[in-house]
Write a structure and sequence with these properties.
By secondary structure, this protein is an alpha+beta fold. It folds into 2 domains: 112 residues, no CATH class; 66 residues. Helix content is 43%, strand content 14%. Strands 1, 2, 3, 4 and 5 form a 5-stranded antiparallel beta sheet that branches. A hairpin with a 3-residue loop joins strand 2 and strand 3. Helix 6 packs across helix 7.
Amino acid sequence: MKINAFKCFVAEYSEAGLAATPAKAQQKSIVVRVVWIYPTFRQARSIKHYLPVGTIKFPIEPDGQIGKGHFERPYYRNGLFWRLGECVSAEHRADAWKILSDVGKNEILTLCKSKQAGGHPRTKQHARKIQFIAEHRELWDAPRELVRLLLENGFFSRKSNLASLVSQVESHIARMKAAAANDSATL
């Protein structure tokens, strides 16, 4: 989702030049980098010229809910970056959810829902492809045949280089065989 980086925060902060880089889902949290944009570059296009102000981390609770989040300033305590972090009030540093506008909150919630649903569509497609390869063990010794089957089932583009696909499938098979060998060795 492409959004205006200045619309993620409440007016008090966006007018001061603070903006958000696109949120990223990590294993147990969602992270947003807070940056200060030079006044001449404050248009609604991609962020290029900025100074880092800090990071907001929203923990994902075990029940799937988003925690209130906290603002972290850069680790170095002197200089301009630390000073820029002071423009965020102590109240908002402790409860970063309050710094977000409705647009920003919506982006965080959307990312959290996407993470709970299994993540990015490519990640889900890759997991289905690995599952498909694992289910067709009888073809592990014939990777070209397995690639043909994967192509028929839409896991690869027909425009892809066949030798590259065979190599990719062979590496998946090698990892699965190694994992199977480790599992049987521990039994």
